[in-house]
Every structure is written in structure tokens, then in C-alpha cells.
Queue: 3 jobs
Job 1
Amino acid sequence: MNIIDVEDAIYDLEQAPYTYDNAAELASLYIIQAHMSKEGITGTTAVIQEEVEDILPAYRQYCQVKRQYQCHEVTEQAVVEALRIVGEEIRDLFNLIYSGTDMGKERKILHNIVETLKEDLDKKSKNC
């Protein structure tokens, strides 16, 4: 069990009808969530800053490799690997932001962002 699993369970229970069992389970999950994120928002903010600083260099590296590919200097695999690294950095940041949420409304916004991105990508891939 990781913090994301706990927060997903919290989100699901917050959306469910309020019952005694749900309230008891939510209380337990809130305690687990607090314990798992001991650093609190201040510690998370510092880690988020580090993640943000990882994204730009990875993206710049991807752009450089892409240019090299267009000049026939590197293989397609090099481009794919560079883009995979960018994606990992973005995913790490997103997961970190998600783990810092403590309200269902925050998590719902993040879920909506993911859904919107997926819809946008689906539309673009249909136009290709």
C-alpha cells in the first residue's frame, strides 16, 4: 500500500454515501494518510521543486535528441527513450502533487486534468 492507494480509497469513500462503516474506514485512512505523509506540505513543496527542476532538463535533452534524429545522427530508439524520460519526470511530479492533496475536490481536479489530457490526445491522434 502506498500513499496514492490510500488517497484513492479516501477519494472513493468521500464520494460514497455516508454510513457508519464508511466514516470509520475514512477515519482510519485519514490517520494512515497523515502517518505516510509525515513531512507535510512544507516537505512536499521542497520535493515538488526538485521534480519541477528535473522536467526542463529532460525536455531539453529530448529536443536535442529529436534534432539529432532529424539530422540522421541518432536512431529512433534514442528519441523514444528521451521522450520516455520526459514522461517519467512529468508523471513523478503529477504523482507528487496528488500525494500532497488532502481534499476530494483537489483529487477530482487532478483526475479531470488527466481525463482532459487523454481526450485531447485521442482527438489529436484521430486527426493524424
Job 2
Amino acid sequence: MMQDQNSLKFDSENPDNTNSAFSTENSLEVVTAKEEKPSRYVAKNQKIYSTNDAKNFEDILRRHLVKVNEKTLTRNELLSQHKETLLQLFNGGVTVDEILTFLQENNFTGITAENLQEILKKKK
């Protein structure tokens, strides 16, 4: 037991002893190694992106932002918002059927002849 205490005393006094559990250099190296290990692990598994990837990423995020901020309108709100344009078409001689046909050709559905007739009635 006395011999163990002497060797511990000797180990702690001898800074050149690399096997010492009390060596401050070794304890710092162990902490440093533990801190570096996760960053190395992350760096090895991270994908490297090009400038073009960054531009595509930004474009995707911007499109999503527009989609999230996009407002929805009811049919009546849509018709009210574009009432002036519809009235210009009607004043130019375009019929309700022509407008409906044109809307259907452009894959725009949900507007009926009755909806357009209401706009015409309000015109008079």
C-alpha cells in the first residue's frame, strides 16, 4: 500500500510520464478528442452542395413561400374582383356562352352561366 502511494506521488510529480492518470496534458487531450469526434463524424456524413444546388434550394423555398402566402377567393369574390373586365367583354359584344367556352378551353372551371348573367343584370 505504501508502494502504491509512492508511485502515485511519483506519477503526479513527473510531468513527462504519459501514462499518468493525473497528467493534465492527457486529460486535455482526452477532452479535446471527445469534442472533435462529433464534428469529424458530421463532416464525413455531410453532403457537399454546389452553387447551382443552392440556387435551386432558394427557388424551391421561394415557391413554397408564395404558395403559403397565397390567398384563396370564393367564386363571388373572384367575379367581383374582375367585374370591370367582364363588363368590358360584355360591352364588346362577347356573350356569356363565349366566355364560358373560353374559360373551359383554358381549364378554368367553377364559373357558371348564372354567375355571369348576374354580372350582366348588375350592368343594366
Job 3
Amino acid sequence: MTPTDALFRRAAEILDQLAEMLDPAYTARQIDEPIDRAAMEFDYSEGEALSHRHFLDTVARFLRHLYAQAFPRGRQLSLSQARDEAVALLEQGYQGAFSSGYDEALLDTADPSHPGLETVLLKVAELVRARQRQMYVRWATARHIDPADWGMKWAVASLLLDRCRPWLPDRLQDCPPAQFADYIPDLLPLYLARPD
């Protein structure tokens, strides 16, 4: 076996490990299901008069509940931290019917045409799920790719490029693996979603 054969064998092992860790069924069990369960268990009062304070406190309590129930060994938030987190989450990721951000979430809560606060809380749960998935993917790739030397990153990128080439835009199909060595995390979702 040549050194190149050994390099590609190890690169294939790394890809197999990442594929196992990032398997959609696994991440659904580890991330989505606990968040969904915690969201369904959350008790709140939608009947109270709508106020900015009631809205923010409810979303903050919801976040505290999600983190405590879905990730018990994870982050425990004080109410103040949860309020800050709620505002940041809504500003960064909330998309309403007409606009986005915290103010739109507050307006959606007051909209009598749909369940209001329930809709906002479900969207907050989606935002937390998406954030947790991103953090998990970053952790998994950091664990397996970051410690690798440039030669190993080149070999992993080469295998990824070979396997993903049919789904890449035309302008990227002829690029050498060296150009992708620092972009392995960007190729991984395409690799994982490919039809076998």
C-alpha cells in the first residue's frame, strides 16, 4: 500500500464517521425530537391581555424550558439571559407574514387570524432546532476535520468532490480538490443529501 492509498483510506474513514454522526435520523433523534417534546410540554397562557412584557416573558420562559428539557446538561438560562436570547433569536431568524424580526413576531402574536403566540413559539422552536443542528455540524466537522493536516483535508476534499461532482454547479465541477480543502463543511450537506 502506498502512502497515497493510506491517506485516501483514512480520508474515507473520516467521511464515513461524519456521515454516521450527521445521519438525518440520528440528528432528528438527538436534536429535533427533544426540542419538539419540550415545546409540546410547555404551558403558557394565551388568554392574558397582550403586552410587550407578557410576550417577551413568555418567549423567554419558553426558551428556558426548551434548553432545560431538551438539553438538560446544556445551557441553563436565567430569565434575563432568556429575554436577551429571545430578542436575538427573533431578530436574526424570525420571518413573519409581512416582515421579519422581533417586532414582526410581536405583531403576529396579536394577529387574530391565526393562533398568535402559539405560532410564534413554534417558529422559535424551529429557530432553536436550526441553531442546534448548525452547532452540531460545526462540532462534528471540527472534531474530524480541523485537527487534520492539509494533506488529509485535500484527500477528504478530493473524495467529496468525486462523490458530489454531479450535483455541483458547472463552474465548480472542474475545480481541483485543493480549492475545496478549506470548504469541506460546505460540501458535507451535499454529500449527505446525495442519492445513493
